[in-house]
Write a structure and sequence with these properties.
This protein is α/β, with parallel strands linked by helices and 269 residues long. Helix content is 35%, strand content 13%. The strands form three sheets. Strands 6-7-9-8 form a four-stranded antiparallel beta sheet. Helix 2 packs parallel to helix 5 and helix 5 packs parallel to helix 6. The chain is elongated and about 70 Å long.
Length: 269
């Protein structure tokens, strides 16, 4: 693994302590990820204090960050996690992640446990903080609406394998992989002309401990052929597209799939 071009671990690599200074995480369960015995200001201040900042300076930074995430320090700093709502606790978790000034913040389903109106407030906060602190987010989510709103690039995975990656606008407008197409087709819509009339997927996901050979999506793909079971499709760049890659035998040239283009012909949907 590498972070900003530097290997992680080893004698010459980036130490875990340095990695934690540059990369922090916001977890899905806002209550379980906070120490119930610490006031929230201490939870936020703990990281800077552990990395060498004096206690008074760490508490001052924690108060500043609580205010930055919309929690008035005079009202919330000395409250315990059980005295806060789910949205307020998640704001504390975001403040804690920013406390040691990281470059990257990983957010694992950070708004999935929140009421929709509260989730919208937290998402707007994340957008503001991204610009204010010049952050990079790695946002993990099953909510496609959230991904489209928050992300610049999207990476779609199925059973631990990347099937498509590219700019959000391009992937939403021109999804190439059958799994991506099925995901987007499953999104609820109020437009009568865009209603899904047939299921694009059938069956259940395979056992991840014993995944299928070749393409892992083939057991649920209506386009699957013999080559899909024999060989895993490589992740290849889509011709005439900006930074858009897909892993599918049906799209790459001369793979043996009946729908694959011949030779150097451009890919088609």
């Amino acid at each position: 693994m590498r972070f900003a071009g530097e290997a992680i671990g080893g004698r010459a690599g980036l130490s875990l302590r340095d990695l934690r200074r540059r990369m922090q995480m916001v977890f899905q369960d806002s209550y379980a990820s906070l120490n119930p015995r610490l006031p929230v200001v201490m939870s936020v201040a703990y990281g800077p204090f552990a990395h060498g900042l004096r206690r008074a300076e760490a508490l001052e930074r924690a108060a500043m960050l609580l205010e930055a995430v919309g929690l008035e320090p005079g009202l919330f700093a000395h409250r315990y996690p059980h005295q806060l709502s789910g949205g307020q606790r998640q704001r504390v978790n975001i403040a804690r992640a920013l406390a040691i000034e990281p470059r990257v913040v990983i957010l694992d389903e950070a708004v999935s446990a929140l009421d929709k109106s509260v989730a919208a407030q937290v998402l707007n906060l994340l957008v503001d903080l991204k610009e204010r602190f010049r952050l990079t987010y790695l946002f993990i989510s099953h909510d496609l609406g959230v991904i489209r709103y928050l992300s610049d690039r999207v990476l779609v995975m199925y059973l631990g394998k990347v099937v498509e990656v590219g700019p959000v606008g391009d992937v939403w407008a021109h999804p190439r992989h059958p799994y991506t197409q099925a995901l987007l087709a499953a999104m609820p819509t109020m437009d009568p002309s865009r209603r899904t009339t047939e299921a694009l997927l059938s069956g259940d996901p395979p056992n991840p401990i014993n995944p299928p050979s070749g393409c892992r999506f083939r057991t649920r793909c209506r386009f699957a052929e013999e080559v899909c079971a024999r060989r895993e499709p490589p992740l290849l760049r889509v011709p005439d597209a900006t930074d858009h890659e897909v892993a599918c035998h049906m799209l790459a040239p001369d793979t043996g799939h009946s729908l694959a283009p011949a030779g150097d012909a451009p890919w088609s949907r």
